[in-house]
Design goal:
The chain is of the alpha+beta class. The chain has one domain: Sandwich (Jelly Rolls). The strands form four sheets. A five-stranded antiparallel β-sheet has the order 4-7-12-9-10. It has a four-stranded antiparallel β-sheet with strand order 1-14-8-11.
């Protein structure tokens, strides 16, 4: 996975053009790397990193802030108009990022200080066709979930899956890869990401 692509395209929208200019001025992208790594490090020290995949900044029922979608590599943002069951934070699950249907995978590369983390991935199936959505989830190159189907929690119902991961290279790679190459199966999709240091 290209870390250069992460450095130029992944930060929050408000800083995107600034970082892209920095990348042009600095072929080695050292300044860009330092800015992005510092942003992530400060967030981790404050507690947790939360990303509203496919959506804008969101404050949940517990008063916690989820950042706008960032650090993604590929995919398209989507929004569902339906109410989400099993959660007080329906808006968080109604927006999501979905693989574009061509690459077969959806990825995030989140800059983090080396260490151990718990990753919570949020899903909600809001598409009838998506009832057949199945995909594998890889964290740092290791398969964390096999043949995951968000609809197993129920149609239009919130589902959260957690896994432990160790980051040693400064970037947490999250990859969702389709496990069924069939036109009747929907591509991988993700509603939100929560990362907490252990």
């Amino acid at each position: 996975m290209s870390r250069a692509l992460l450095r130029t395209g992944a930060p929050a929208a408000a800083r995107k053009s600034f970082l892209e200019d920095e990348a042009v001025r600095s072929p080695g992208r050292r300044e860009v790397k330092e800015i992005v790594d510092l942003e992530a490090a400060l967030a981790v020290r404050a507690g947790e990193i939360r990303i509203n995949a496919g959506g804008e900044e969101y404050r949940d029922g517990a008063g916690r802030t989820w950042s706008p979608d960032r650090f993604h590599l590929g995919g398209e943002p989507r929004t569902s108009p339906f109410e989400i069951l099993g959660t007080r934070d329906g808006p968080l699950f109604r927006t999501f990022r979905e693989e574009d249907g061509w690459s077969g995978s959806l990825a995030y590369s989140v800059p983090l200080p080396p260490g151990k983390y718990t990753v919570a991935l949020h899903f909600a199936e809001t598409n009838q066709k998506g009832l057949k959505r199945r995909f594998h989830v890889f964290l740092e190159g290791e398969r964390a979930f096999t043949d995951l189907n968000p609809a197993e929690a129920g149609f239009r119902t919130a589902r959260i899956e957690r896994a432990a991961v160790h980051v040693d290279d400064g970037v947490l790679d999250i990859v969702l890869m389709t496990s069924r190459w069939d036109r009747y199966f929907s591509p991988p999709a993700l509603a939100a990401i929560e990362i907490a240091p252990k």
